[in-house]
Amino acid sequence: MDLTALDAIDVHVHVEQDGRGCLALDRELLDASAAYFKADQDRTPTLERIAEHYRARRTAAVVFTVDATAATGHPALSSEEIADAAAEHADVLVPFGSVDPHAGRAAVDRARRLVTRHGVRGFKFHPSLQGFDPNDVRFYPLYEVLAEEGVPALFHTGQTGIGAGLPGGRGIKLRHSNPMLLDDVAADFPELTIVMAHPSVPWQDEAISIATHKANVYIDLSGWSPRYFPPQLVRATNTLLREKVLFGSDFPVITPERWLADFAKLDIKDEVRSLVLKENAVRVLGLAGGRG
Ligand SMILES: [Zn+2]
């Protein structure tokens, strides 16, 4: 990946459809999420469309799906296919994998293979959608592999648009995405880089405390327009956490162009902007080393 050809790196982009037209979520969840985000653009982009979209904007994208097969009953998109296809767009795409933590030993072995055979550069977890407490020691063998392979783990935190407005939120529990659960994981795996995705509403102060306290924990700013960021998050980004906060859009529910336009209007110091938009991600993703 030629970093000089890039102005920004978006660390949070969802592949929602594969080449056969299979979708990452069932229709009810997709429609509820699109309504929650008032998304008027295509809610189910393929990897190829994502690559075109980002290439045209001189921006790299970390792409992934979420394997929540056990919790939702909906078959997941293949992270192997995503990673293999992303390799054809290596100028702009950085593939992350997803395994279902409930798959136990198979998930651990698969995570290892995704890194060693498919070139996956990190993993995405969505504790609410996948229905698991990230600090449950049953899932620790999974983190051991990620720490050994030196790839980051990105966890959804806080409120979610998935299930929003549906009876019982379709059974999706928000408490799994309390960032405090990740404080345990970060403490027990100091070698593992953890990214807490999104302003972690309603636990923003917790997220800021964890990222301040743990050298191995970062925050991505995806899923919200910068216009609505909690003020303490903006303050922390300008000061204590300037090297720990990352640009993410949560495409397709928010486009990078909308996010970037709103970020330009946010009260962020000039010298912090390039850290957030690109430099911090280069470090977290290990793109400057030989592996890119
Ligand atoms: Zn996400």
UniProtKB/TrEMBL annotation:
Family matches, as Gene3D superfamilies: Metal-dependent hydrolases (3.20.20.140)
| Span of domain Amidohydrolase-related | 9-287
Statement: the UniProt record of this protein carries the keyword Lyase: yes
Q: What is this protein called?
A: 4-hydroxyphenyl-beta-ketoacyl-CoA hydrolase
Q: What's one GO MF term for it?
A: hydrolase activity
Pfam families named among the record's database cross-references: Amidohydro_2 (PF04909)
Q: Which domain of life is it from?
A: Bacteria
Please tell me whether the keyword Glycoprotein is annotated for this protein: no
Q: Which UniProt keywords apply?
A: Hydrolase, Lyase
**Alphabetized SUPFAM superfamilies for the sequence:** Metallo-dependent hydrolases
